[in-house]
Amino acid sequence: MIFRLKTSKQTQEIFEELERRTNYKPYTLVKHAIAWSVAEKTSVKDFKSDSNGLDLNRQTITGDNEEYFKAVFELIEGRFLEEDEFFPKYVKAHIDRGSKLLLDMYNHAGSVDKYILHVLGVGDTV
């Protein structure tokens, strides 16, 4: 079983920028990135990116909710994911794709407060 993955260099740069702007740490940003990627409801099976970024621990990413993450990914893919596919391939793909979406959402919101209101579905913020 694999316990670590490396994000793309671009994801690392996005997370560093967002950390400077929001004070959110990568262990928080990674969950937001996955959520935005999953919201796309499209496969990441052909998503390609480098592995020159952040080194992340499996537990940091999924915590006690690994089965939930896997089930959601399987629903999107429409098939069972083998263990070595789920982690690191699909988890990494959702993080890397989602990091770009997260940055776009944050930039469009313009502030942490407006971004959080958008995430919560309150008001017309984004």
UniProtKB/TrEMBL annotation:
Domain of life of the source: Bacteria
Protein name in the entry: DNA sulfur modification protein DndE
Natural source organism: Ruminococcus albus SY3
